[in-house]
Design brief:
There is one protein chain. With 256 residues, the chain is of the alpha+beta class. It has eight helices and eight strands. It has a five-stranded mixed β-barrel. A three-stranded antiparallel sheet has the order 7-6-8. Helix 3 runs antiparallel to helix 4. The protein is 39% helix and 21% strand. It has a domain of 175 residues: Nucleic acid-binding proteins (OB fold (Dihydrolipoamide Acetyltransferase, E2P)). A hairpin with a 4-residue loop joins strand 1 and strand 2.
């Protein structure tokens, strides 16, 4: 599977608010900006991922800080400014925040980081927004973390134009009896028999497993691990070497 360039149609969306200026979303990232102000990165239903500046009095700023936190569903009123920056005019909770204890919290932070670093600004994607909301609901409900993350990763990669293609890089079908390696820049490549005879320690992905994944057979632990490896290969390439804080936090937690 060669990883294709994103399609032009995926680059042409325009951010639009509801007629009354309302939008709905979550805080992905927040940092202080001057006195009583913050720069937010929001993930919203109607505007996609946007950078937003908040400005308020000292009293209102303190109240806003408690509301403008990750994993709290928000109703927002935004005003578009210059240079791709938006201004927050009003915000309020749309419901209670998601209860995500450690280590599940790290998975939710991972979702936020993927959106923050990989989703283009001001490009609404209602399907991906719904997938994010469903993922948070499922994590909070204690469902299988691996399945939740792999499902979201697959939808994200498809949205970006980088969905996995279960075929060889040259377009030939996968064979159940074959052993394949995966290269992010190219896709799946059949490992020749002579290479396996020369070096029996060579590892790869069986055609049987890949064809099972192609047909939706991703429910067992082994399939989830293969999907994790394949998705990570593509995601790491898209991240361009950027380390994710969520992965670091999870590794630190495992060492405790």
């Amino acid at each position: 599977m060669a990883i294709p360039e994103p399609q032009a149609s995926a680059l042409s969306s325009n951010a639009e608010l509801e007629p009354d200026g309302a939008d709905y979303g979550f805080v992905l990232h927040r940092r202080p900006y001057r006195e009583h102000s913050s720069l937010l990165e929001l993930w919203t239903l109607h505007c996609g991922r946007v950078s937003v500046l908040t400005r308020s009095s000292a009293k209102k700023y303190t109240a806003q800080r408690a509301t403008l936190q990750p994993f709290i569903p928000l109703e927002l009123r935004l005003k578009k400014g210059a240079h791709g920056l938006w201004y927050l005019q009003e915000c309020k909770r749309r419901g209670p925040g998601f209860e995500l204890g450690v280590p599940v919290l790290f998975s939710a932070v991972y979702l936020n980081e993927l959106i923050y670093y990989l989703v283009r600004t001001a490009e609404p994607d209602p399907e991906l927004f719904a997938a994010y909301l469903n993922a948070l609901n499922s994590l909070a409900a204690g469902q299988n973390e691996s399945a939740i993350l792999r499902r979201f990763e697959a939808l994200l990669l498809a949205s970006l134009g980088y969905a996995l293609r279960y075929e060889c890089a040259d377009g030939t079908p996968l064979q159940s009896s074959g052993l394949y390696r995966f290269i992010a820049q190219r896709g799946f490549e059949l490992i020749p028999t002579w290479r396996l005879e020369e070096d029996p320690t060579l590892s790869g992905y069986t055609g049987e497993m890949l064809l099972s994944l192609k047909n939706g057979g991703n429910g067992d632990t082994a399939a989830q691990q293969v999907l994790k490896e394949l998705h990570r290969c593509v995601i790491d390439r898209l991240l361009g070497g950027r380390a994710l804080k969520s992965r670091e936090l999870y590794l630190q937690y495992q060492r405790l």
